[in-house]
């Protein structure tokens, strides 16, 4: 790809040198087009316009310069990611007008009744496997690249979910357990991590907790989301990655994945949001899960996120939201996929392990120990859990309760099959 120096030279100096340099830039852009299937498909469908592509790359580089903050240290992950150790006060959250000049808050009061999970059962992250770590006072941030942005449908939608108007529209399909009808101040669960197959780059497969308020089908939906996902368009590979999301207007103009916009404030130097999780569960083999807790700090009203054995990842400031500034009215746990109906058939993108709930432990994906946080900051078992699969022949769910798992369910499926054409 042409360097910024070449772009500055384009059009400068003598007409002969301008012509040579201009030809070089066009040649490099043509090579980029031929090397990138995503870029190629978007350009070849219309007339190739070198000046427009040059301007596009300039805009992307300007955007990346603002997004990727100066790092004190950079760690190369085995999966190819670069993890930048950024001073905590320089992270993207503090670009927000209401946060400029501030620093992350101290740890809040945690919910009462919180039991720490067994560390032996946990999945961590690939970038930690080298033994490298980020210094105190910094936060690990996955570096965003030009290739990441070029894979997106547009720069405006980069880092954002496709708009989801309701639980069944827009090609989104779900298998979830949920509670509603009360005021909720948080949610907690442990979910095992898999590497389901995603069949086209514009689809994804995820498993997460949703903390929700507002109305489905309207423009006032507020959500806080955390879990693991596989999204080739967003990350460029098929690894399951720890992610977060938020929106205050039904996925339209506010919110984003991870730290790709100002909003979520990270406080931990051990977890990189958007980084690959390892190890993952195997069919009839070892099962590895992550424990996630989202709760509203009773003192300041912010929504905090905990990962694994007590690691506080950070928080969403309450001012980001309208309805969630007070409390949630619904909590969901479970899986979601996008079905683009490529070639007019239902997608073969898998949810969870890619196997139906009836196959049970070590074969199907699960959520266990489902809890919510009440008005007095107590963690309590989920009351009256309901389960719903909106396309049960493609992905299903089966709930249960009792024993060390408390409230739990198995969920998932293969997508396209004889009963899901």
UniProtKB/TrEMBL annotation:
Q: Which Gene3D superfamilies match?
A: Outer-capsid protein sigma 3, large lobe
Q: Does the keyword Signal apply?
A: yes
Sequence ranges assigned to domain Neprosin PEP catalytic in this UniProt record: 166-421
UniProt protein name = Neprosin PEP catalytic domain-containing protein
**Organism annotation:** Acorus calamus (Sweet flag)
Which residue stretches belong to region Disordered?
Answer: 94-118
Basic and acidic residues bias: where? 95-113
Tell whether Acetylation is among the UniProt keywords: no
Signal peptide (UniProt feature, chain positions): 1-40
Which UniProt keywords are present, listed alphabetically? Signal
Output the Pfam families linked to this UniProt entry.
Answer: Neprosin, Neprosin_AP
């Amino acid at each position: 790809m042409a360097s910024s120096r070449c772009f500055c030279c384009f059009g400068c100096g003598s007409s002969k040198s301008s012509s040579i340099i201009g030809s070089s830039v066009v040649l490099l852009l043509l090579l980029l087009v031929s090397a990138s299937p995503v870029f190629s498909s978007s350009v070849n469908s219309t007339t190739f316009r070198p000046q427009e592509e040059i301007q596009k790359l300039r805009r992307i580089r300007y955007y990346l310069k603002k997004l990727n903050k100066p790092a004190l240290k950079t760690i190369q992950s085995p999966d190819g990611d670069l993890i930048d150790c950024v001073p905590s006060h320089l992270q993207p959250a503090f670009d927000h007008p209401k946060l400029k000049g501030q620093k992350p808050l101290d740890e809040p009061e945690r919910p009462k009744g919180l039991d720490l999970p067994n560390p032996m059962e946990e999945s961590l992250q690939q970038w930690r496997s080298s033994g490298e770590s980020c210094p105190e006072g910094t936060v690990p941030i996955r570096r965003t690249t030009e290739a990441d942005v070029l894979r997106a449908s547009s720069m405006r939608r980069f880092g954002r979910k496709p708009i989801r108007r309701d639980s069944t529209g827009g090609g989104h399909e779900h298998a979830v357990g949920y509670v509603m009808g009360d005021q909720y101040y948080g949610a907690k669960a442990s979910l095992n991590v898999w590497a389901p197959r995603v069949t086209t780059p514009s689809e994804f497969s995820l498993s997460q907790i949703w903390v929700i308020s507002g109305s489905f089908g309207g423009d006032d939906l507020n959500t806080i989301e955390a879990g693991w996902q596989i999204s080739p368009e967003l990350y460029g590979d098929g690894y399951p990655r720890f992610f977060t999301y938020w929106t205050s207007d039904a996925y339209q103009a506010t919110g984003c994945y991870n730290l790709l916009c100002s909003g979520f404030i990270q406080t931990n130097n051990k977890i990189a949001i958007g980084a690959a999780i390892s190890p993952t569960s195997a069919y009839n083999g070892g099962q590895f899960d992550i424990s996630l807790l989202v709760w509203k700090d009773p003192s300041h009203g912010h929504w905090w996120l905990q990962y694994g054995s007590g690691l506080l990842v950070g928080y969403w400031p309450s001012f980001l939201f309208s309805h969630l500034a007070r409390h949630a009215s619904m909590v969901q746990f479970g899986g979601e996929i996008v079905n683009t109906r490529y070639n007019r058939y239902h997608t073969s993108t898998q949810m969870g392990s890619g196997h139906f709930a009836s196959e049970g432990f070590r074969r199907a994906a699960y959520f266990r120990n489902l809890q919510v946080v009440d008005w007095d900051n107590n963690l309590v078992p989920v009351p009256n859990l309901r389960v719903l699969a909106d396309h049960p022949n493609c992905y299903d769910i089966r709930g249960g309760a009792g024993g060390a798992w408390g409230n739990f369910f198995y969920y998932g499926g293969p997508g396209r099959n004889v009963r899901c054409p």
